[in-house]
Amino acid sequence: MKDAPRRLRNPCMLATLAVALIWLGTAARAMSAAPPEPLAFPESQLEPLDWAAIEGWLDDDHASAFATFQASCKPLVASRRWRRSKKPADTRPMRQALTDVCVEGMKALPADGAAAREFFEAHFRPVQVGQLGEETGLLTGYYEPIVEGSRFPSHEYVVPVYAPPSDLIAFGRRAEGGAFPNRGRVGRRVGPDEIVPYHDRGEIEEGVLAGQGLEICWIKDPIDAFVLQIQGSARIKLDTGKTMRLNYAAHNGHPYTSVGRILIQRGLVPKAEMSMDRIREWMQTNTDEGKDLRRENRSYVFMRETGLADDVEPTGAQGVSLTPGRSIAVDRKLHVYGTPFFISADLPIGSEQPATPFRQLMVAQDTGSAIVGLARADIYFGAGEEPGRIAGRIKQQGRFVMLVPRAIDPAIAAANAPLPPPRPPEPKFLPPEWLWNVASAATAPAPSLPSTEAAVAAAASPANAYAAPAPAVPLPQRTARVRTVPLPKPRPQGLVRVRR
Average pLDDT in the 99-108 region? Predict the structure, then answer.
């Protein structure tokens, strides 16, 4: 009989391998199912609140906020399914806990605002966040400009809007969808092993990229091109009657500089009057100085055509359509897309004075290079002139209450923190009166040795547990021998020659 095939010779080995694979799978599932760590931010203060302590919480339209939250949940849940067998790209505790809530949120169909509010209250804990020593954070606004343009240059449309060039290289971490990072090192390849900083705004406006076929469209006013890049999106009303939708694609890597701050520092515009309309007005009045002012912001943003319909809002960095009054841009390094925030502030919405109460539940769906900090948000107000005027006036302080999933609630984590180990018992020392005085023992005469019977009886006595030890027998001292060593003979003095 021929030998059996090799794979059947040792069934014990196959059984061992199968058990090992099952154990590895179980361990991997256990690791993935481990509870996330508590929420924590560097140099921050977190204050858990009760829902009743949030002013305006009961008066908000929670059904509208829940619809915006569900829009953010779709990519979070889809990303978990796609990466089920891979290491997640974002391992922060907030991402894991928020995705767990989103799984439940995608199943929920609240009938009204009250049911939506109950969902938020059941799955989240309100926590006021801020930097150390600060109770509020900065709020600004942004919008989608509507600008006239053409796909072809002419004497009227002279300002190009560029797509990302091919020699643009990013050193930062790419987003999950492969999008260009909005922050990080960016350069230009000039050789096989040489990368230099990319062209700044002044060089690009002077035409360094002309003739490369990067022009998406042309518009009339360089100020509109400047504002378009700051806002990150635009609707171009083409001369053919159609609408072109543009969105952020990349940047040249130079830091963003606020031209409004420069105008205030130079005393050209009072701080109380600062707004986007005021900046535009100053640039239009001072044409040459306005050109130089724009170039002090060396940052340049490249755009891409999206193909969105006219009635669809622009897409944020998370990849979902923004909702006016519900979507905010946050610091991507600190916050996770889809995180709900309840914002409380008095803003200049109805007029130029900050007299309009703003108490609304927002969802983090976008980001920007100028949005930096734990309590920092940019509110999206919509498209067109009126949202643009409102967004340009927003620069107020507000209260940030983050809705934290209960799995990483810092208050619950503190209550469930393990206690420190018990203090070890104090060591027992001999009473001072029973300690042996070494100094007196050295001068005392040697005691007489007891008999054998007396020594055995003393050892068996209970009082002998703390008996003083026998006196130490001093060792004979060793005297050192001193040997006299003769000194060397003095050196004879030589003759001293005196030069005359």
Answer: 93
